[in-house]
Write a structure and sequence with these properties.
This protein has about 575 residues and is α/β, with parallel strands linked by helices. The protein is built from 20 helices and twelve strands. About 65% of the residues lie in helices and about 10% in strands. The strands form three sheets. It has a six-stranded mixed sheet with strand order 6-9-10-3-11-12. Strand 4 and strand 5 form a beta hairpin. The two termini are about 65 Å apart. The relative contact order is 0.08.
Length: about 575
């Protein structure tokens, strides 16, 4: 736990001052509140009982002053505690988000999207609430407990023994309650991940849900997960419910005992009426402090599970880092695979890629074909170092990709992935992801090459057309062409299209490839496709099967020599004939 606290405390940063000032003002507030019963005792004994109006006025003004000062100190304590906790949460979210940005694909594979969202929202909120209670309530309660108890001892040491008997009973009870509730809260936050996953899947796939009339199934799935959270929370709250009766039992017992024994001491003359009133006030301060301390423990119990989950992401070791002396220039778009093998995890039973040896000259067009699961996408993701090879090496521009500065390498490689992702904003905003400084002429040229200009020109607002969430207001083919244009704006040395023209018609596909040949001849183009027509005019075509390159050559060569390619060609030509 100390390691987790140390890791999270690094996110306090510029709010360290507020985190210090809050407890300082809390301490001053406590001092004022502890002095008030002491002055009240003198007011009763020396003023009201004696009928001395001068003392009544004098001590009344002192009480008023202490109350005002306590209020002022409390306001400042609340202000700085709120600033410190909100700032701490802001920095935590910032650090989590930036940590995820630096993750490699292998790191991201360890966490679900729903889990990362829960950690940045619910878990951070829990830690924020706990931190605010720590810098304010967790400081206030022990100070109030100590100061009030010392006052009780100063007034009447024998009556202080009542608290020495009752406090251990309360402490043991609270310990038993918290130790039984904490494991349930840990289960709750793990189940939150599942809840977010269900909701996210349902919202993203709502069209599929409705088209298959699966609303009832989705509702049942949501109800099951939500019911699990309800069950865990209910069990935890039932355990925590014992806190209130335990606290009340101790409070009433202390008041009864102080009243009973105090009355005896008043009769014997060793205690005044004012002292008894102040003792009851101090007992309430002590016991209220304990009640508030119990609330802090409950909040900390909930935050412990959240803090572990946050620290897990912050401490995740990124397996893709820049070398100590990186290369900052990519000479050309040549690519070479030397005895490459790859597996997603170290303890995986088999390799995804096996014995890959391949040379691609700068400016060549290479097509990659293969069945589902043949590791086509995995192969090209090694080029911009989205994953690292398990064995062997990948060279770009004659240099091992591990020796490059990551930004330099990825700036030289543009990838259009299978999943076409558009972000909220305008078409222009999305295209400028490829080059933030791109001019209107450069944007228009990239769209012409990707054949996206055909539909953009028909839109009333053109490049300023708003993109809805996930590009929902564009068809699959339109999104693919926008993503290709975005990649072209990078002016890359290597362009990788991972099945990125599957949603466009064959005519548009052919026009895009023709534009590539004439307009970007010096760019190395690697095209993964399901249609032979998309790659048949490539300089070289790879046929992959079960993570291996089982054939390589031109369209004519493969038609003569490779059975897999021949079968793919025949099946697709039949479809075309039909």
């Amino acid at each position: 736990m100390n390691r987790i606290v140390e890791r999270l405390s690094g996110s306090i940063r510029e709010y360290r001052r507020d985190s210090i000032l809050a407890p300082v003002f809390v301490a001053l507030e406590v001092v004022m509140e502890v002095l008030i019963p002491l002055v009240l005792a003198d007011l009763i004994d020396d003023g009201i009982t004696a009928g001395n109006m001068d003392i009544i006025i004098k001590l009344g003004l002192v009480l008023l002053l202490f109350a005002i000062m306590s209020l002022v100190f409390g306001v400042f304590a609340g202000k700085y505690a709120a600033s410190a906790s909100a700032g701490f949460a802001k920095n935590l979210r910032h650090d989590l988000f930036y940590a995820v940005q630096n993750f490699s694909f292998a790191n991201i594979d360890k966490y679900s999207t729903a889990s990362l969202i829960t950690r940045m929202t619910t878990d951070v909120t829990n830690v924020q609430n706990a931190y605010q209670m720590i810098v304010r309530i967790a400081i206030r309660c022990p100070l109030m407990l100590i100061f009030a108890f010392l006052m009780v001892v100063g007034i009447h040491a024998q009556l202080a023994l009542i608290f020495l008997v009752l406090l251990p009973i309360l402490g043991i009870g609270m310990y038993l309650i918290i130790t039984r509730a904490q494991p349930l809260f840990e289960l709750v936050f793990k189940t939150y991940d599942s809840l977010n996953k269900v909701v996210r899947e349902n919202l993203r796939g709502i069209r599929v849900v409705k088209s298959y009339v699966r609303e009832d199934y989705e509702i049942k799935k949501f109800r099951n997960v939500s019911g699990s959270i309800y069950g865990y929370f209910s069990r935890a709250e039932k355990i925590l419910a014992f806190t209130s009766p335990l606290m009340q039992a101790v409070v009433y017992a202390s008041i009864l005992l102080i009243s009973w024994f105090g009355a005896q001491f008043i009769i014997s003359g060793s205690l005044t009426r004012g002292d008894l009133i102040s003792l009851i006030s101090y007992s309430m301060q002590i016991l209220m402090s304990l009640m508030m301390l119990a609330m802090v423990f409950v909040m900390i119990t909930m935050a412990q599970a959240s803090s572990r989950r946050i620290a897990e992401v912050l401490e995740e070791e990124v397996d893709l880092t820049n070398p100590s002396d990186p290369v900052f220039t990519v000479a050309d778009g040549s690519v070479e695979f030397r005895d490459v093998g790859f597996q997603y995890t170290k303890d995986a039973e088999q390799e995804i890629l096996k014995d890959i040896n391949l040379k691609i000259r700068s400016g060549e067009t290479v097509g990659i074909l293969g069945g589902t699961g043949s590791a086509k996408s995995t192969l090209v993701q090694l080029i911009p170092r989205l994953y690292d090879t398990t064995k062997g090496e990948v060279l770009v521009g004659g240099v091992n990709v591990r020796e490059y500065n990551l930004t330099t390498l990825r700036d030289a490689v543009a990838m259009v992935l299978q999943k076409n992702v558009l972000f909220s904003g305008t078409i222009r905003d999305n295209l400028k992801w490829g080059n933030p400084d791109a001019t209107d002429e450069e944007i228009a040229r990239a769209c012409r090459l990707a054949k996206a200009d055909e539909f953009i020109e028909t839109l009333p607002e053109g490049f300023d057309t708003k993109v809805e969430q996930g590009g929902a207001n564009f068809s699959g083919g339109q999104k693919q062409r926008l993503c290709i244009a975005r990649a072209l704006l990078k002016k890359p040395k290597i362009l990788i299209l991972d099945d990125s023209t599957s949603a466009v018609d064959t005519r548009t596909d052919a026009l895009i490839r023709q534009a590539f040949r004439t307009e970007i001849p010096d760019t190395t183009k690697i095209i993964i496709a399901q249609r032979i027509a998309s790659v048949q005019d490539a300089d070289n075509i790879l046929v992959m099967d079960a993570g291996r390159i089982c054939a390589m050559g031109t369209h004519e060569e493969l038609l003569q020599n490779n059975a897999i390619y021949q079968e793919m060609y025949r099946s697709q030509m039949k479809g075309d004939d039909a």
